[in-house]
Amino acid sequence: MLHVYKLSCWLALVLPFSSGSGKEKKLLLVSFDGFRWDYVNRVPTPNFDALMREGVQVDRVENIYVTKTLPNHYTLVTGLYAENHGIVGNEMYDPIFNMSFSMEGEGFYESRWWEEAVPLWVTNQKAGGRSGAAMWPGSDVEIGGTYPVRYLPYNASVPFETRVEKLIHWFLEQEPIDFGVLYWEEPDESGHRFGPESSQLDDVIADIDEKLGFLRNELKKNRLYDDVDLIVTSDHGMTQLFSEKIIQLDSYVKPDLYTWIDKSPVVGILPKEGYFDEVYSSLLDANPNMMVYKKEDVPEHFHYKHNIRIMPILLEAKEGWSIVKNRSGDFMLGNHGYDSSLTSMHPVFIARGPAFRKGYNKDSMRSVDLYPLMCHILGLQPLANNGSLANVQDLLSERSDKDSTPRPYIPARPTEPSYAWALGSLLGAALVVSFLLVFVRQVTLQQLPALALHNREISQPLLQEELRL
Ligand SMILES: [Zn+2]
User: Which of 48, 142, 257, 300 has a CA 20 to 30 Å removed from the CA of 412?
Assistant: First the structure.
C-alpha cells in the first residue's frame, strides 16, 4: 500500500505537466528571406535583441553554395548540400527528365524534383508528429507521398500576420502540430530592388522587427511563448551591385551555342551538342571578374558537382558583379548567390525556448548543422545528412542535452469534452509510466552502447510490449 501511496503522490506532482498543459515539444522555424547576419546592427531591432537576450545568437550562418533561395531553404530542412538534396538552383534543368524547373512555376509542383531528399516536416510526420507550414518554399509540394498536415498553398499576397495566426491556431488545435515552418519574402525583395546599403532597407528591417514582435506577442497571448522553441534565421544575405560591374556574355560567345540555366551571379551553361570545347574556351579567361569552371573542377568545398542537374560549365561572378547576356534587361541594385564563403552571403540566426541556452553567443555555424539540431529538439532520428549536432551542441540548454531520448508516439487525445478530465488523467498516468519505462530503457541502453541508435519507429513496438506487462 505504501508503494501505491508513494506512486500516487508522485503522479499528482507530475500530472499537471503531462496532462495537456502543453509541455510536449514544439518547434517553430522562421525564415525572413535574405536577412543578412549584420542587419540586426544597423537600426534598432528591439524584438531581435530580446530574443538574443532570452536565447542564443549565432553571429553568422555559413550557408551553402549556391547562395540562392531554394537551395538554401531546402538545406535548412534537410541538412544536405545542394548536390545531395537536388535543388541545385532557383532554376534548373534535369537531363534525365529532359525538363526545366523554375521557382516561378515550371515543374515546381512536380514531386520528383524534390524527392532526392526528405524534408523535416515529412520525417516528423512519419515518426508520428504533426507538421504545419506557412509558405515555406516547397512545403506545398507533395513530397514522399505526403504534405504537412496543415499548410498554406503559396501566395505571396497573404500578409505575415495571417501566416502567424494560422500557425498559432495549428499549435493550439485539438490535435496540434509540433513542428511549424514560417516564411516571409522580405527583406530579400527590397534588398534586390534598393540594394542592401540603401536607406530604404533600414525601414524594411525595422518593419521586420515589428513583425517579429507580432509573432512574439501572439505566442505570448496564446501561452505558447515559453513552450515553443523558436528559431529565426534566413537563407542568404545580400550584396550591393554596381551598374558598371557588368559581364556581358554576348561579347565572348555566340548566344546560339548554349543554353543558360539559372541566372547571375552563378550561371549554369549547357553548351549545344558538340560545342562544349568552343563555348568553354571562349569563356575561359574572358573576363577577370568571372570564374569559369568545368563541372568536375568546381572547388570541393562548394560541394557542388555531384548532381546531374549541375551544368557542364559554371560561371561565377566576383562579388558585386553581374553576368548578363547583354544590357537589355532590368538592373538590380542588390543580389546574392555568390561564393558561400563571403560574409555578405551569410544569414542571421537567433533562437530561444526551453531547448536553448540563455544569453549565449557563438561566432558562426554551418546551415547544414541546423537539421540535426532540430531533429534533436523534436526527438527524431535524423536521416543521413551533411551536418553534425556536435558542432552546435553548445547552443542547447543542459536540460535539453539530458533530454535526448527519442520520444514515444502518443496516440491522439480523445475529443469528448465530458470525459476530458478522466481521460486526461489516464493519459497523464500513461505518459508518466511511459516516461519511467523510457528512462529505465535508456539506462539499460547506456550499458549497451551498440544499441543506442534505436529510432522512434523501432522504440514504438518495444514500448507497447512493455506497457502490456
Ligand atoms: Zn532568398
Answer: 142
Listed by start position, the domains of the chain span: 2-15+421-467, 26-239+342-402, 246-331
CATH number of 246-331: 3.30.1360.180
CA of 300 to the centre of ligand 1 (A): 24
Residue 331's pLDDT band, with cuts at 50, 70 and 90, is confident
199-221 vs 46-54: helix axis angle to the nearest 10? 50
C-alpha of residue 368 to centroid of ligand 1, in Å: 16
Q: Would you name the residues annotated as active-site residues?
A: 69
Q: 429 alpha carbon to ligand 1 midpoint, in Å?
A: 46
State which CATH number among 3.40.720.10, 3.90.1300.10, 2.60.40.2470, 3.30.70.2190 fits the domain covering 26-239+342-402.
3.40.720.10
Say whether pLDDT at 280 is over 70: yes
Residue 415 has pLDDT above 70, yes or no: no
Contact 230, 51 (CB under 8 A): yes
Question: By CB neighbour count within 10 A (0-12 exposed, 13-18 middle, 19+ buried), where does 256 fall?
Answer: exposed
Q: State residue 463's pLDDT score.
A: 26
User: What is the value of pTM for the model shown?
Assistant: 0.82
